[in-house]
Design brief:
With 127 residues, this protein is an alpha/beta fold. It has one domain: HesB-like domain (Hypothetical Protein Aq_1857, Chain: A), CATH 2.60.300.12. The chain is built from three helices and nine strands. The chain has a four-stranded mixed β-sheet with strand order 3-2-5-4. A three-stranded mixed β-sheet has the order 1-6-7. β6 and β7 (95-100) form a beta hairpin.
Length: 127
């Protein structure tokens, strides 16, 4: 009989990111079921991270619950985001979500886009 390995959690949140998402969802003008995270083609480095509020879980969304926050991972982005930690950084001149992604191979100078490669190895085999 084959042994079933548990699926790895695609993403995790820092305490600061979880607190910021909870704050944003509490201030939203409509009920929010979760935040969907994905990637899209664009920018000078090739890809950009995306985030959006969603009213309901899609049938193909990967659901991640971490620190009391529900994230939905776009199924096309799972291999690009595997192992990523999302953080919230606030400084004197800017505040933004930051993706600490082991699949990121480079980024553009302005920080708006990244070059990502799909995850490989044991974590990706579970997909």
């Amino acid at each position: 009989m084959a042994t079933v390995r548990p699926r790895p959690q695609v993403m995790r949140l820092s305490d600061a990111a979880a607190a910021r998402i909870k704050e944003l969802m509490a201030r939203a003008d409509r009920p929010i079921a979760a935040v969907r995270v994905g990637v899209k083609n664009g920018g000078c480095a090739g890809m950009e991270y995306t985030m959006e509020y969603v009213d309901q879980v899609g049938p193909t969304d990967e659901v991640v619950e971490d620190k009391g926050v529900k994230l939905l991972i776009d199924p096309k982005a799972v291999l690009f985001l595997l192992g990523t930690e999302m953080d919230w950084k606030a400084g004197k001149l800017s505040a933004q979500f930051v993706f600490n992604n082991p699949n990121q191979t480079s980024a553009c100078g302005c920080g708006e886009s990244v070059l990502l490669t799909p995850a490989k190895g044991e974590g990706a085999e579970a997909r």
